[in-house]
Design a protein that fits this description.
By secondary structure, this protein is an alpha/beta fold. Helix content is 36%, strand content 18%. The strands form two sheets. The chain has a six-stranded parallel β-sheet with strand order 3-2-1-4-5-6, with helices on both faces. It has a six-stranded mixed β-sheet with strand order 7-8-12-9-10-11, with helices on both faces. The two termini are 14 Å apart.
């Protein structure tokens, strides 16, 4: 299973997939702005195709030295830091100098909301609001609605800082590939609803800060190209599974909800297949993608993928089911792992180590559980991000 996971992640390598899509007409001068978890690979591909006059790259990986044309910043994730703000301010300086004959190329990927930010409130206040929303189980749409209202660059506002022609290459990390949501839609024309943002903060009992409302109309003449999505990665997983002898069924890339609840639903599907009560002929692999949430009540280590796998341990107990949930970005919550694997023998294995899955689940400590029995998936940051994937092999 781990080999399938690694090959699936590699299939959405940002350098390769971006270079294949670089067919845009160049400008008199070309400017590059890349931010997100896939920014290094995307920027490398674009700079090999276009002659770049100046550019900014904000990444969560070790930033490269300034090469005289492209400036690198190591932004913060999951919360913006001072470098995230410097990257945004420097970008505005550069693209303001571009003319209508020039081209500004944005490469945008998951994590861009944190890695590229120019907030309307103190950074500390913004980060505290974001933390409270995450702890409360707010979904990505609620989170981005608030972040757009509290930012000078999100919600299509970044495009308004230049007169140049704009094209945005996008790697999608949201359900439905909604361009207004990916990295909070910095170049995608949209209306930012301040009242909705205030209502969301009030819903989660967050103190609403004083901030400037938006009144300028967003720029609409921006071309967007989605270069990779969760569906692309799931389709690759299907090919890899077929190569090793498994037919597969794709449930789609819109899996959402609380991780434990999603585990119960998916586990029910897998169980019916394993019992022979469905139309699927075993052996079969079931593939799905999306992004769940976790309502954190404990102080353990882990993230939504490991939480889902931990909730799956008892569901697949003594069944011929092997399950994996993993993030394509290599990062799962506050842990060193990317995800985890659970199968029909995991419960008994844990028992032999005196580990109780329910106890670890109660304190949101999925990483320590799977780490102790060597079923964690650890890849480190992958340099890409197309949400999460679940794979179950039922025999």
């Amino acid at each position: 299973m781990k080999e399938i996971v690694l090959k699936t992640i590699k299939s959405v390598d940002p350098y390769k997939i971006t270079k294949e899509k670089c067919t845009v007409r160049p400008g008199k001068k070309n400017f590059l702005v890349a931010f997100g978890k896939a920014s290094l690979g995307m920027a490398k591909a674009i700079s090999e195709v276009f002659e770049i006059s100046a550019g900014v790259v904000s990444t969560n990986e070790d930033a490269l030295p300034d090469n005289g044309r492209i400036e690198y910043f190591q932004g913060g994730h999951p919360f913006p830091n001072a470098e995230s703000v410097k990257a945004a301010k420097r970008t505005i300086e550069i693209i303001r100098s571009a003319t209508a004959e020039d081209l500004v190329i944005f490469s945008i990927s998951g994590g861009g909301s944190a890695l590229f930010e120019y907030p309307k409130v103190d950074l500390e206040i913004l980060n505290e609001i974001t933390k409270q929303l995450m702890r409360s189980g707010a979904d990505i749409y609620e989170l981005n609605t608030v972040r757009k209202s509290l930012s000078y660059v999100k919600g299509g506002k970044l495009a308004g800082f230049t007169k140049a022609r704009i094209v945005s290459f996008v790697i999608s990390d949201v359900v439905g590939d909604d361009l207004s949501t990916i990295a909070s839609g910095p170049t995608y024309p949209q209306s930012v609803n301040t009242e909705d943002a205030i209502a969301i903060m009030e819903k989660y009992k967050i103190k609403v800060p004083s901030f400037q409302r938006d009144d300028a109309a967003p720029r609409k003449d921006v071309d967007h190209v989605i270069v990779a999505s969760n569906k692309d990665a799931c389709e690759s997983a299907r090919r890899f599974l077929k190569d090793v002898g498994y037919d597969s069924f794709y449930l789609g890339s819109a899996i959402q909800g609380e991780a434990r609840e999603v585990a119960r639903v998916l586990g029910g599907i897998y169980t019916e297949i394993e019992k022979g009560s469905s139309d699927f002929k075993k052996p079969v692999a079931v593939i799905s993608g999306g992004e769940t949430t976790v309502n954190v009540k404990g102080n353990g280590l882990g993230g939504r993928n490991q939480e889902m796998a931990l909730a799956m341990v008892e569901i697949v107990k003594d069944k011929k089911i092997t399950f994996a949930s993993f993030g394509t970005d290599g990062i799962d919550g506050n842990s060193p792992a990317d995800g985890a694997i659970a199968d029909g023998k995991t419960f008994e294995m844990a028992k032999s180590f005196n580990l109780d899955p329910k106890e670890f689940l109660s304190r949101n400590d999925a990483f320590d559980f799977f780490d102790k029995i060597n079923l964690s998936i650890v890849t480190g940051p992958t340099g890409t991000n197309v949400m999460d994937i679940q794979i179950a092999i039922v025999e």
